[in-house]
Structure formats: C-alpha cells, structure tokens
Amino acid sequence: MPTRLEVIQKLVAEQPDDAFRRYGLALELKNSGRLDEAAAEFAELERRRPEYVAQYLMHGNLLSSLKRRDEARAVLERGIAVATKARDNHALGELRGALEALEADD
Fold it and tell me: CATH no. for residue 56?
C-alpha cells in the first residue's frame, strides 16, 4: 500500500504543472518533517505557477522557521505583489502580517 506522500508524488508526476497537487506535495513534505524538501517543492511551484497565491504564505513561513529570513522576506514580498495583482485581499492581509512579524523579529 503506497503512503500518502507516494500517492501525492505520483499525482504530481502525472500533472507536474498542477498547482494544487504540487502545493499538496509541499505541504505533505512539510508535515512529514522533510522541511528542506518542502522548501524546494515550494520553490518549484513558484517557478512553474507564480500566480498561485496560496503558496507564498506557507513558503515564507517555512523559510522563516528554517531561519532563512532573507529568503522568507523575498518570498513574502513576491507574494504580496502577486496577491495585489490578483486582488486577493485576504491573502494580502495574511502576507503583510507575516512580513511584519518577520521584520519585528529582526
């Protein structure tokens, strides 16, 4: 019986540009404690589907937890730009809040 991670990896392999599947893979890696792999998967998602707003908050928070603060800041800033363009005010508020929290820790 394949693991949940293996199932998601197979789904991503079938449709590598599907943002929702790749996002799910990144989250599953994160939840499995494979944080560096999750960060790499979020980066790949952004490369393939930069307009997918949901990824930026999770990616930025993950990088922040890994103490990769400059990278986290850059991801959150890119996310703010994408959310602004998409007029996604909910995501925009969350991204700004995450960026403010990151900067407050400086």
Answer: 1.25.40.10
